[in-house]
Amino acid sequence: xxxxxxxxxxxxxxxxxxxxxxxxxxxxxxxxxxxxxxxxxxxxxxxxxxxxxxxxxxxxxxxxxxxxxxxxxxxxxxxxxxxxxxxxxxxxxxxxxxxxxxxxxxxxxxxxxxxxxxxxxxxxxxxxxxxxxxxxxxxxxxxxxxxxxxxxxxxxxxxxxxxxxxxxxxxxxxxxxxxxxxxxxxxxxxxxxxxxxxxxxxxxxxxxxxxxxxxxxxxxxxxxxxxxxxxxxxxxxxxxxxxxxxxxxxxxxxxxxxxxxxxxxxxxxxxxxxxxxxxxxxxxxxxxxxxxxxxxxxxxxxxxxxxxxxxxxxxxxxxxxxxxxxxxxxxxxxxxxxxxxxxxxxxxxxxxxxxxx
Length: 357
Prior knowledge:
Blueprint: E1 2-8, E2 11-16, E3 27-36, H1 39-48, E4 55-56, E5 60-68, E6 80-83, E7 86-87, H2 99-102, E8 113-114, E9 126-130, E10 134-136, H3 143-147, H4 149-161, E11 169-173, H5 177-188, E12 193-198, H6 201-210, E13 214-217, H7 223-230, E14 236-241, H8 248-251, E15 256-264, H9 276-284, E16 288-291, H10 303-313, E17 323-327, H11 332-340, E18 350-353
Parallel strand pairs: 11-12, 11-14, 12-13, 14-15, 15-16, 17-18
Antiparallel strand pairs: 1-2, 1-4, 3-5, 3-9, 3-18, 5-6, 6-10, 7-8
Helix pairs in contact: 4-5, 4-10
């Protein structure tokens, strides 16, 4: 089958791979219809390299069920599904189920891994998953939107940690795909003031189109002063760090109001040095800080997935407008190289591959 395989940093190859076969009685083979690039894919491509050399990559996808194991009972041939990409203790050959899986806190599993890391991923024509990882797509939800349920679930998982309330003011730092999804879900959770912060004008334009009520270019103005002005000195109820920058990961503590909180979605991949001014905000403002990891909860894969699917089905959530590039797998190595060395004038939203293209 056609696939994208990661061999090393900036070494992504379009080549043939073995089509996955049924191995366990609850396995499902899915024909991949749409699969998106995640920000973590870009970091692994440019900075970290693969977990396993030559692994078929990718984890944000949707597709059609084409084979099922003999013990599969909840999905059938022809079903349209989104794939929850996480494997926990139940799926892995571990001698003992970890403490967190015993508590059904699957995002905290000691052995948590995702497809494309140590198991074949979705940048391919076909993928194998356990039946429980398959979330059925309603007839009125298209494959492109369904492929974006996973990153949406990451954002919702983060918001579920917080105490966000209708009428809140939310500041979102970083307007890449995770930041734009954070804007969308801040609206859904009822925030009335949504302030987006970034250093790129095109990203801020997309944030405004997505639903941000105010945008701040922190390369051109002092974000702290601008937020202070916009909120009448109160600052934000909730701050979302979605940039994954060592700089903004320290600054966000100053953007929250007293008694507010900060939720971290971004991963800096570097040391975060917090100046006294910012650190003291945690103490003096009595902030709550939430770390949010992954996209699953209990019952697996969690209410995040069911919530997003329901929002899509009822047309309360629109995701396709975030897609700026629709490509074949063959174009994968080129687009990863381009995005990793993008110019300031380049505009990349969600990039979606179509293995059949």
